[in-house]
Amino acid sequence: MSNQKPLSKKKKLEKEEVISLAEMFAQLMNAYGDFAESLGKIQKAHAEAYEDIFSLETIEKFPEMLTKVIEEEPPEISRLVIGIFSKMTAVLPRIAKIMELPADDKIKLGENLKSLAKDFKKLLEWAEKRKE
Fold first, then answer.
1. Is the pTM above the cut of 0.85?
2. 69 plus 97 within the same structural domain
3. Same domain for 66 and 53?
4. Does the pLDDT value for residue 28 go beyond 60?
């Protein structure tokens, strides 16, 4: 149920609207391009690990893996990992329906995704410093 008017009855787009839309699509295409490229490179370089991470078996072992992280890693990392997964659980269903969301919900989703990105960067920094 959309409150949008059909395009044929809408006024002509203003220059600022065209600029905003073009900028948004440029950012979107760039982000999706980076994502697809990175995903492909990881899949190519680490095929077995890539297949494992997205397998049903891995999903089924998730509670066990999370427990292991909580038991074996420092509390700040355990909290970070739990936070990441709880945020992901909240945002993933909304991503699939992003075009149906009202504007304020899209903005909130964007803020949540940026927060998740920061959390993943913290996890990456920790992993890079970690000694095997």
1. no
2. yes
3. no
4. yes
